[in-house]
Amino acid sequence: MMNTPLSNLSFLASLPVEWQAWVKENVARGCEPEGMAAVMVRDGHFKMDLARLAIAEASGQPVARQAMRPHPRIDANSNTVQAADRSINVLFRMQSPEVVLFGNVLSDEECDALIAYTQQRLERSGVVGEADGATQIHTHRTSRGAMLQRGETELVSRIENRLAALIHWPVENGEGLQVLSYEKSNEYRPHFDWFDPNVAGPRKHLERGGQRVATIVMYLSDVEEGGGTSFPKIGLQVQPKKGCAVYFANTNAAGEVDHNTLHAGEPVERGIKYVATKWLREGEFK
């Protein structure tokens, strides 16, 4: 879908097949569009703008194609999602901002293998410099991390393909995994994952695949105390659980950044937190 020009993008076709049929049937019956859109948001967990555009398209109305961009999509009609080689549990979902907590994303063996594979490559984590976009050390981020290439090993490739199937987003539109280690008192203070196009340094990163549309944080270990992923603007905190992952959309379907996705890695109080982060780009990441 990401390779489809926006001028040819079908909002209706971006829906699951059963919802495409539902929209066509109810349009044919002359159902009221806003009522249909409300049902799609309530029962299908679609964004309201996508619901309205799909209904308008099915009704034969002219639709401004630039109003919508391709965006990751999660099947939420059941409590489990079959993602390539693994059945994944949907444990929690928030619509605005879109935050989804998944269980059983990784096996214990996969978590342990990722930790072991990167243990000797961990270096102090950095942040994007505002002036030139270069990575720099900052007191707001005190973890250590290792950046992996896409498809670097069979394990990495397997996980990337699983995530792509889970959120209906091409593997090539993702950055490589970043494995992070947070020891006692390590943290990452509140920040956004999206790049601010109004600041020179972050703007440079938009040249390599566009905006970061979504983030997936996979927990590779349990943590005795602390280390949660918090979203201070919406009062949400996700506690680390080995094998689970939290997904959140950094932009909406119109490509606008979401300031409610401000998030932080809370300080670890006891134990060590290991996570693997996957950032999803708008286009192919090179």
Highlighted features:
single chain; alpha+beta; Jelly Rolls; 2 domains; nine-stranded antiparallel sheet; four-stranded antiparallel sheet; about 25% strand
Question: Can you walk me through this structure?
Answer:
- With 286 residues, this protein is an alpha+beta fold.
- It has 2 domains: 6-67, no CATH class; 80-281, Sandwich (Jelly Rolls), CATH 2.60.120.
- It has 6 helices and 17 strands.
- The strands form 4 sheets. A 9-stranded antiparallel β-sheet has the order 1-2-3-14-10-17-8-7-4. A 4-stranded antiparallel β-sheet has the order 9-15-12-13, with no helix packed on it.
- α1 (17-28) packs antiparallel against α2 (33-44) and α2 (33-44) packs across α3 (48-58).
- The two termini are 18 Å apart.
